[in-house]
Amino acid sequence: MDKTLNNKAWFLVLPVLVVVAFSAIIPLMTVVNYSVNDTFGDNQFFWNGLAWFEEMVSSDRLHAALGRQVLFSAIILAIEVPLGIYIALNMPKKGVWASLCLVLMSLPLLIPFNVVGTIWQIFGRVDIGLLGHTLAAFGIDYNYTNDPIDAWVTIIIMDVWHWTSLISLLCYAGLQSIPQAYYQAARVDQASRWSVFRYIELPKMQGVLLIAVLLRFMDSFMIYTEPFVLTGGGPGNSTTFLSIDLVKMAIGQFDLGPAAAFSIMYFLVILLVSWVFYTVMTNLDKAEGR
C-alpha cells in the first residue's frame, strides 16, 4: 500500500525557514559581500576580488592564532574525553546517589560563559583568589596575567571543569541503555573489566561519544567568552585564539574586509574538520563491524 504524502506539512516549517533566513543566511551573505569588496565609508563599496582572502592566507597573525587554536582543541579533547568516560563509568547507576551525581554534574553546564570566565578570573588572582593565594602560600610562582604558561593552564582547567560533565552525561546515557544481560554474560565468561569496557560498554557508547567529541571540538575551536573574560587574549597574544583575533580585527580595528574573509575561512575550517572527523569515525565504526 502506497503511503500518502501530505505536502501541506511544509507550511508548518515555513516560519522556521523564515527565521533561519533572517538570522543566518542574510547575515552570511552580508559577510560574503564585505569579504570581496572594500569600502571607504558612506556605504560605498568597491570590488576587491579575493585580495582579502589572499592577505589572510599569507598572514602570520592568522597562522599564529590558528596554531594556538588547534593546540588548545587537541589538549581539551585529550583531557576531557578520557576523563568524561572515566567519570561516567564510575557514576552510580541507580538510587539517590545516581540522581545526586546527575544534578552535580549538570551544574557547571548551567553557568553562563561570561560568569565562568569571571569566576576563574577571581579564583586565580593572587591577591584575593583562593587558587592564586593558596599557590602563593606554598611558594609557587603563579600569575596568569603575566605568565603565558599559567594563563594556558588556567584556561585549560577552566574548560575541563566547565565541559567535562557534558561528555560524562552523554556517555552515562549510553551506558544506561546497555541491557543487564550483557553484563551477566560477561560474568559467566569471567571477562575482565577491560574486556567488558572494550567489547560491551565502548561500542554502546560510540554513538553518543561521537556526538560528544564533535560538540566539544566545535565548541573548543570557537571558544571566545571564557578566555576573553579571563585573560583578554593575553599576556601578549599567548591566548589570542581565532575568535578573539577575529573580534579584535572586526571591532577593535574595524577592518571589515579582512575580518569578513577571516570569518568565512574560520567557518570553512570548522565545517571541513568536523566533516573529516565524522567521516573517519563512522568509517572506522563500519570497518570494525559495529
TrEMBL record:
Topological category with respect to the lipid bilayer: Multi-pass membrane protein
Keyword Ligase: no
Domain ABC transmembrane type-1: 66-277
Keywords of the record: Membrane, Transmembrane, Transmembrane helix, Transport
UniProt entry tagged with the keyword Repeat: no
One Gene Ontology cellular component: plasma membrane
Sequence intervals crossing the membrane: 12-36, 70-89, 96-123, 151-175, 196-218, 259-280
PROSITE patterns: ABC_TM1
Subcellular localization: Cell membrane
Gene Ontology terms: biological process: transmembrane transport
PANTHER family: GLUCOSE IMPORT SYSTEM PERMEASE PROTEIN GLCT, TREHALOSE TRANSPORT SYSTEM PERMEASE PROTEIN SUGA
Family of the protein in this entry: Belongs to the binding-protein-dependent transport system permease family.
Name used for this protein in its record: Sugar ABC transporter permease
Species whose genome carries this gene: Paragemmobacter straminiformis
